[in-house]
Amino acid sequence: xxxxxxxxxxxxxxxxxxxxxxxxxxxxxxxxxxxxxxxxxxxxxxxxxxxxxxxxxxxxxxxxxxxxxxxxxxxxxxxxxxxxxxxxxxxxxxxxxxxxxxxxxxxxxxxxxxxxxxxxxxxxxxxxxxxxxxxxxxxxxxxxxxxxxxxxxxxxxxxxxxxxxxxxxxxxxxxxxxxxxxxxxxxxxxxxxxxxxxxxxxxxxxxxxxxxxxxxxxxxxxxxxxxxxxxxxxxxxxxxxxxxxxxxxxxxxxxxxxxxxxxxxxxxxxxxxxxxxxxxxxxxxxxxxxxxxxxxxxxxxxxxxxxxxxxxxxxxxxxxxxxxxxxxxxxxxxxxxxxxxxxxxxxxxxxxxxxxxxxxxxxxxxxxxxxxxxxxxxxxxxxxxxxxxxxxxxxxxxxxxxxxxxxxxxxxxxxxxxxxxxxxxxxxxxxxxxxxxxxxxxxxxxxxxxxxxxxxxxxxx
Length: 461
Known about the structure:
Layout: E1 7-9, H1 15-22, H2 27-32, E2 36-38, E3 45-47, E4 52-58, E5 64-71, H3 73-81, E6 91-93, H4 109-119, E7 122-125, H5 128-136, E8 142-144, H6 152-159, E9 164-168, H7 173-188, E10 192-195, H8 204-210, H9 212-220, E11 223-224, H10 225-236, H11 242-258, H12 262-276, H13 280-302, H14 312-329, H15 334-341, H16 351-362, H17 373-391, H18 395-427, H19 431-453
Parallel strand pairs: 7-8, 7-9, 9-10
Antiparallel strand pairs: 1-4, 2-3, 4-5, 5-6, 10-11
Helix pairs in contact: 5-8, 8-9, 10-11, 11-12, 11-13, 12-13, 13-19, 14-16, 14-17, 14-18, 15-18, 16-17, 18-19
């Protein structure tokens, strides 16, 4: 209780409001912090949290930014006996405030972050009590998502500390749905994932309350994602019936199609075919179909406007990026720009910019250039570069961003061309060629995602 600073909100309508007013706070400030609600008459105020165990929610530095409140069991029982049917939610949380955004906060993160580093993994549970009880049982690298699926900002916090996330969400439909969404997001961030097996109908807090040792054992025996869903699918559905086979395949194919390693994928395809008693070729065909679905999904993420001719704004953005890159290239220290460009091939659409870039890389100075508009362009670009260098907060970082954004644009175009080639090969029955192209598409997709995950300001946005 001390580590998590747990508290209690009395079952009164104005305890928090009146207490904070006495300390000098304005009622509007209390409401802005998410602790008070204005009454229907427009002039009165009442406490948001009443008759609840209070869970302070902290940011990564340990500063309290919000609260979660769990209704006391006796109050919940009393409400169940009421004739009017009114029942308050088991948990309520601080709403979005200027300092609290639930998608950017993990409950228990401040307490767990050092232990996550030490253990090389983070246990991710659903609720506040799950997190507190897990810490009480000695599993100190546990955090909670406050009843929602993980978000990209939350995954970013965790990825800085560990490459492995171990999930233990509730086993009800909502918990299973949150688990699936979280697993997909974690996979998109190239995080390793495992799942803790919890007895049906229980959450981690229930399990720990009954038998802390069982929780510790379950954490040690966490299974990889594919193994977990294989066991789940074959337990839930009958593999002896055609309908059961279809249900099992429907559950497993998204996980098989998402596997990047072909050896691992081949292993699970073989296992699946054996358990379903169907030819491996049938499972492979279904997996390839799933991969195409994933490819179409990625298209929407990577080049939403590339399904038709490139728009003027896209071409204009390319030109702006090329201009900014060259202007910085001409004024920044060559050893630093060479380091950034090492091993990279930048393709310019603007022929003047392409010529300037090639000449600069070859060490040809302006006097050796022809007396056409290229020479003039070089002078103008150098002047623009000097302005950026002298006034930008970090001109070298801007150069890195320009290179990265141009790489991404090149990859978008390559993926678009490759996707059309795959469709063409499949239409003519050239399955082997299509398979090779699909593997190349997946490789380029991984490179694109790796570039996209690096978040830096975009100079041509």
